[in-house]
Amino acid sequence: MNIAELFVTELERAGVSRVWGLAGDSLNAFTEALRENDSVEWMHVRHEESAAFAAAGEAGLTGELAVVAGSCGPGNLHFINGLYDAHRSRVPVLAIASHIPSEEIGSGYFQETHPQELFQECSVYTEMISSAAQLPWVLENAMRAAVERRGVAVVVVPGDVFFEEAPSRRSTAPIRRSNPQVVPSVEELDEAARLLDDAERVTILAGAGVAGAREEVLALAERLQAPIVHALRGKEYIEHDNPYDVGMTGLLGFSSGYRAMERCDALLMLGTDLPYRQFYPDDARIIQVDLRGEHLGRRTPLDLGLVGDVRLTAAALTPLLCEKRSGKHLRDSRKHYEKARKGLDRLAAADDRGPVHPQYLTRLIDELADDDAVFTADVGTPVIWASRYLNLGGDRRLLGSFIHGSMANALPHALGAQAVDRSRQVIALAGDGGLAMLMGDLITIKQNNLPVTIVVYDNSSLGFVELEMKAAGQVNFGTELANPDFAAVAEAVGIPGHQVETGAELEATLREALAADGPRLVNVRTTRQELSIPPSITAAQAKGFTLWALRTVIAGQGGELLDLADTNLWRRLTN
Q1: What's the distance, CA 228 to chain centroid?
Q2: Which residues contact residue 89 at a Cβ distance below 8 angstroms, ignoring those fewer than 6 apart?
Q3: Is 501 exposed, middle or buried (0-12, 13-18, 19+ CB in 10 A)?
Q4: Of 44, 130, 103, 20, whose CA–CA distance to 444 is shortest?
Q5: Which residue in the list 36, 110, 181, 294 is annotated as catalytic?
Q6: Rounded CA separation 575/569 (Å)
Q7: Edge-to-edge strand ranges of the sheet holding 497-500
């Protein structure tokens, strides 16, 4: 057995089912070992960046180790953006980065880079194997680091080392993530209970760390009579069927979530790392619970930081709290949420005029999708509409580049999710800019027989960037997209494509696409001047918007103002 064959054997023992990548000469021994193995599938992509995103999507859906492999130099260098996404989303990914021949390292050889240095910032483990004797130790260390620390591990292997004879070693148990039970001390829990009991108005902010802790968090909210605000990554775990939910906060949230935090006198942060400091209350006492002690207090000053698993901590804290509490803050927050929710829902009402409003498009997708559908959303306006109009109750999931914030993530994330289960509905909510950036993934979908449904929000612009320019008082520049007919492009690579120009034809087209076997692409012409107002508008943003309007007229682009009014004011008046 050579080193390449040992790699594949160890991956199989660890439960890995597929490897994403693109073949190359320095990787030949590894792909040959895969060819001879019946258990680990080679997922051929057209761009290594897509491979890394696909692995991130797979790992994000399953929580298990996903793998990418790329050839030397530019090959594995293309991984870096997708690996950053996986690393910052804290999902376990192993990257196998082949290298130039050992004897040429340091000579400025053809395609030479230094992968072990390049990937340091987006990994929890990076090591180069310079001789066969280092295996399987390095590979085992890398896989264990990835699954235990929930991040990216990179193993760099010169192409010639793959061919060396593998050393013998006693087999170990397959690498699986451990499940430690971490609870704050009794003294810390007592202090938390004292702080919360002294407060009249407690609000809970729930992030991705509430996964698996739903019942315990709801019981805690009941005891505290606390509204629950969720961050975007906490949406799929806590929002649905939640009598304490008052919506989302942050740049993509809406007013009720912001208000519930602003008016509390104690904020309990559970498994969240919401990065936007301006959305935290200024005067409230703040308690944060997180498994990662280094994350405590890095977003807002704390009165108490607790290292612990959210489920276990919530369960231990609840019985320590006073039972008789006023429910006024919860009732007020829920009332405001219901009003805000109705306002958002009115904006998603059917409109037969064209182009299609993205709120209506997303609401229809939500209504027509399966109960266990997996959604992926491109960074930009698709994420806004997904966060506001997708219901993620039951077994539904939402994947995205929510921390790294990369364009073009929706389609490759969908590749990874769909490869896990080809019978499960996977819907990619793709921006036109994101789809165009990695459009080769359409070929990857066809070649790997992945039945992804792609819905394109085609507004011929970098829509979120334009909103940022408006808020800053700038005239839109450099955001225009001269798009091809995406439906025709899909047809050209063998994927049935549908074009939607008006709301009148939208529902029937979506029903057909979602019910079909195999991949589909639905290109929907959406309104360009669609405002998505954040829950809190600063004076500077209001001033910037006014300045944008003035500059737009002066620049001779007054038609854009009329389009903005037609898109937004008319709909609000008629609804």
Answers
A1: 21
A2: 56, 60, 401, 402, 403, 404
A3: middle
A4: 44
A5: 110
A6: 10
A7: 397-400, 374-377, 426-431, 453-458, 520-525, 497-500
111 labelled catalytic: yes
Give the whole-angstrom CA distance, residue 188 versus residue 290: 13
- Which two structure tokens, joined as six digits, stand for 457? 């929000």
pLDDT tens string 411-456: 999 999 999 999 999 999 999 999 999 999 999 999 999 999 999 9
pLDDT value, residue 187: 98
* Catalytic status, residue 121: no
53, 79, 162, 464: the catalytic one is 464
Q: Residues 453, 514: contact at Cβ < 8 Å?
A: yes
The helix/strand/coil state of 127 is: strand
CA distance 209 to 191: 22
Phi and psi, residue 230, nearest 5°:
-115, 145
Is the pLDDT score of 123 beyond 90? yes
553-567 tens-digit pLDDT: 344 444 433 343 444
Q: Is the pTM of this model over 0.85?
A: yes
For residue 359, indicate whether it is catalytic: no
Core vs surface per residue 436-461: b (16+ CB within 10 A) or e: bbbbbbbbbbeebebbbbbbbbbbbb
- Helix, strand, or coil (residue 426): strand
* Cα–Cα distance, 85 to 91 (Å, whole number): 9
215: Cβ–Cβ under 8 A, 6 or more apart, which residues? none
Residue 246 gets the label, from left (phi > 0), alpha (psi -120 to 50) or beta, of alpha
Catalytic residue among 5, 10, 48, 262: 48
- Distance CA(148)–CA(178), nearest Å, equals 7
Selected residue with higher pLDDT from 183 and 278: 183
Catalytic residue among 111, 447, 474, 541: 111
Query: Mean pLDDT over residues 319-326, rounded?
Result: 93
Name the helix (H) or strand (E) containing 201.
Answer: none
Token digits of residue 220: 């805690």
Return the number of other C-beta atoms located less than 10 Å from residue 116's C-beta. 16
Give the type of residue at 486.
F
**Counting beta carbons within 10 angstroms of the beta carbon of residue 130, is it exposed (0 to 12), middle (13 to 18) or buried (19 or more)?**
middle
Are 364 and 506 contacting, i.e. CB atoms less than 8 angstroms apart? yes
CA distance from start to end of the chain = 70
pLDDT band at 215 (very low <50, low <70, confident <90, very high): very high
In the predicted model, is pLDDT for residue 230 greater than 60? Answer: yes
143: pLDDT strictly greater than 50 = yes
Catalytic choice (379, 383, 456, 524): 379
